[in-house]
Amino acid sequence: MNEIYKVKAEDQEQEQNDESQVQQSDVEIMPPPRTPNPRGVIQFLTIIGQIEGHVLLPPTSKATKYEHVIPQLVACAESPEVDGVLVLLNTMGGDVEAGLALAELIAHLGKPSVSLVIGGGHSIGVPLAVSANYSFIAPSATMTIHPVRMNGTIVGAPQTYEYFNKTQDRVEDFVTTHSRVTRKRLAKLMMDTRTMAQDVGTILIGEEAVKEGIIDAVGGLHDAMEKLYEMIGKDTPEVKKNDGK
Question: Is 237 within the bounds of a domain?
Fold first, then answer.
């Protein structure tokens, strides 16, 4: 009987040694843990191409699907590891309701957010650009300001005209609420007939969008990230050390 217990004890000791060897092996194989950024963790969100709504776009079109972006924004708001969101915009516009839905989520994210127009922020991309707490535009980037429009067959009735007016009001309300442009000036930019040959509206390039009060500042990626770090407000070890002197 004693020999049986002795054999079992030896087996248990051998198993423990094997487990410790496996754990040691895992530690050697696994890469060292990534040191978190002391200034804060930024989540990047790209909105590119055409903003796809309830109707699928052709497979040859670059598109941002709003049903994919909405869960990402909710995850950013929920995650304690994300300190701020940087929205990178290069969009030609697209579905009005889908664009406004994304803009509303960004505006009420509950965390610091910065947007950067790097190529174009046209049409419904304007509300998306101003939805962040602070907005940048690259010097060569453009923004097209124009009224709401629709392709395809429409019913020529007063109700259709009223629907367009209400949709236009929604866009104007959002843009004027989240930027410095006045409603009167925004309406004038939208209805300008001198800029585009086959349409009404205004094309703004870089600094022009800032002068109109739509975008906060001209800048690039570094400027946008530095602004977001500033808004996050986490002190680096060096800052803490200097503060203690």
Answer: no
